Amino acid sequence: MNPKKDLLGIEGLGSKEILNYLDTAEKFLEILDRPIPIIPALRGKTILTLFFEPSTRTQISFSIAAKRLSADVVNFSASTSSVKKGETLLDTAKNIEAMKVDGVIVRHYASGAPRILAENLNAFVINAGDGTHEHPTQALLDIMTMRQHFGYIKNLNVLIVGDVLHSRVARSNIFGLKTLGANVAVCAPPTLIPVDIEKLNVEVFYNLDEIIGDFDVVMALRIQLERQESGLFPSAREYRNLYGLTVERVQKMKPQSIIMHPGPTNRGLEIDPEVADGPKSVILKQVKNGVAMRMAILFIHAGGKIE
Ligand code: CP
User: Fold this and answer.
1) What is the mean pLDDT of the segment spanning 224-244?
2) 180 DSSP assignment
């Protein structure tokens, strides 16, 4: 399969493209368990992580993935760069490309920023989260984790709970899961549901207690306190009472069902600590799969070869 130069979102990807990422990542998972988990697939390539927003999982995971494939990695932080002196995103990127970078992994607070880079750079561009638009690599690792657990995605019943309004993770997961034939629903206070949600072809619920027992996967979203306008829900305590994954509420879930969260978690708000660390949680599996998925994404877009 001939991949597109860039990975900017899941919207518009076909099932073959998504399955190619999943199948390639499954192969790389085995490498991570080797005593020396490194292969020379991207030797001589240079990958830049260009992060204008904070990140733990995504940036570290891409750095580790690139090192596992023997690429050179340069990590860029907006807070210590000349962006602080007024340089534009494009000027920053063009200067970096002049230094012969092969791929740019970009996270930006503005929706659409990765597309601007992709249209102006020869290097491949991977969207590591842009504003409230998409977070494609998170969705791919989430879908990989679901398929690993259940063995299939078609007709899987997935419920996404919480701050759908601000969530690029929810949007990317909805696009990917719907393309692969899953049934997707969202549940949140009306103020945290986007007005045009029906265009995404998902069911919408407001009462979590009535429906939580119907789903195979329950994915809690982080309440994005930094993107919240005041007043979207009355209080953190009320949010937890109605929508939090509490120990009592999780007892209503199906026996084989799983709980996911993209991280970082607000423990005690959208998910209780006992639930995040409990037997249904696959949160750390998501993180491990994230390295394999990012290896697959780098490998596919850099045109890597197994020697
Ligand atoms: N899930 C996720 O994007 O986490 P980080 O913000 O830590 O990268």
Assistant:
1) 78
2) T
Structure confidence at residue 88 (pLDDT)? 87
Give the integer Cα–Cα distance in Å for 202 and 183: 8
Q: Is the CB of 173 within 6 Å of ligand 1?
A: no
* Structural domain includes residue 7: no
46 lines ligand 1 (CB under 6 A): no
Q: CB of 265 closer than 6 A to ligand 1?
A: no
- 6 belongs to a structural domain: no
- Give the structural domain span for 143: 136-282
Residues 124 and 163 in one domain: no
Q: Give residue 225 CA to ligand 1 midpoint distance, Å.
A: 15
Q: Does residue 55 line the site of ligand 1, with CB under 6 A?
A: yes
CB 151 within 8 A of CB 22: no
Per DSSP, the three-state class of 32 is: helix
Residues 144 and 273 in one domain: yes
Domain-located, residue 43 = yes
Indicate whether 192 and 120 sit together in one domain. no
pLDDT category of residue 277 using cuts at 50, 70 and 90: very high
- Number of domains present in the structure of the chain: 2
The pLDDT tens digits for 110-150 are: 999 999 999 999 999 999 999 999 999 999 999 999 999 99
Ligand 1 mean position, distance from CA 54 (Å): 8
The residue assigned the tokens 């750079």 is 121
Q: State the pLDDT at residue 228.
A: 58
